[in-house]
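sry for the spam today, last one i promise. struct tokens for design, 119 residues
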């Protein structure tokens, strides 16, 4: 899996997070009374997470829950020792989680986008 970071302060590039925040706002936070002094927000958040992942169907998953989707694909997910063995045997460079990777790419003259050849 390639690491493709986005620039800081660019929510328009982070659609998945923005989408889940919209769902949380409309389906969770709209039902929470923050003025209630006996509110156990941690318990509510755990309950919401359980519901969201195991009981709420998602249209992006063709009506399945994330839990059902994970179970259907679980046989395709490699276990960690296999991943580690394959990674350490490769010459792939781990890029840092900041923008110094751009200077690395420029230094190594790596082309990130392959342009079609014109005739």
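last one done:
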């Amino acid at each position: 899996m390639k690491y493709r970071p986005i620039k800081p302060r660019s929510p328009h590039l982070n659609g998945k997070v923005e989408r889940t925040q919209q769902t949380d706002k409309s389906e969770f936070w709209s039902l929470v009374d923050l003025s209630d002094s006996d509110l156990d927000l941690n318990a509510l958040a755990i309950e919401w997470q359980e519901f969201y992942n195991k009981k709420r169907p998602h249209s992006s998953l063709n009506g399945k829950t994330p839990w059902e989707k994970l179970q259907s694909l679980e046989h395709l997910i490699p276990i960690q020792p296999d991943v580690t063995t394959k990674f350490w045997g490769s010459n792939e460079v781990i890029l840092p989680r900041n923008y110094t990777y751009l200077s690395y790419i420029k230094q190594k003259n790596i082309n990130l986008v392959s342009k079609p050849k014109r005739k």
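The mean pLDDT is 80. ok im logging off now
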